[in-house]
Amino acid sequence: MPNSPSSTDSASPPPAAALAGAAAPPTTATWPDEIWVLVLDQLDYKGLHKAAQLCKKLKRFIEDESFDARLFRTRVKPPKKLIPNSTLEIHPLLAATYCVFTGKDALTWASMGGDDGEEHTAFEYPAVDEYATWPPATIMHVDVGVGKSFPVTDRNGIKVRRVLQRLGHFWGSKATSTWAWNMAAEYHCPPDEVTWQMALGDRNGWTGWEEAVVENEATAVRLTACGYDS
Known about the structure:
This protein has helices at 7-10, 16-20, 33-40, 45-52, 56-62, 68-71, 92-96, 160-172, 177-187, and strands at residues 89-90, 97-102, 105-110, 120-121, 133-134, 139-143, 149-153, 205-206, 209-214, 220-225, 228-229. It is α+β, with helices and mostly antiparallel strands and 230 residues long. The mean pLDDT is 80. It comes from Rhodotorula graminis (strain WP1). It holds the Pfam family F-box.
């Protein structure tokens, strides 16, 4: 009689031929497109940009218009009317930008978590030419806490670059007459030399934005600044 298989034999691994016919465990490379879209749908602005760098397939998915809002892409025209009193999303680059004021210049620095770990001027990022808010606005009133807001306009949709350019220009511009005379006495200088930057006193650091809210007329957005660091 042939010997019956031992317990050791029954526990031995299957031959290579049997393994060759077994189904391989699923990998991300075999995921259907629907699964990838669900995964990408969970990512924010930075996450989508990182995913787009992984492979051409993901980049192709992210090019779909369904991701335009999260990426503040400018291929979508701004709406003629916004929802009154609604809060808009502020672009991550604009939210990450702060200013240090030296003389009449406003030096804008931003940290977007780049691979080099360094901070750059906001204008070095390609994102500076994306919409400043979502939905995009064509009229913006920027409130920087000095009792006077300044306008930013662009009928094609306001970009991050435009907001920062106007911000720097505002601080270097002449203050209104009431402010100018009051500050001239404090700084012992002629009123026509008083700029809005002098209204900051010893506060010289921009600390970001509190909110962007659609005003009642539904055509303009008020962008309100946070306070300042000294």
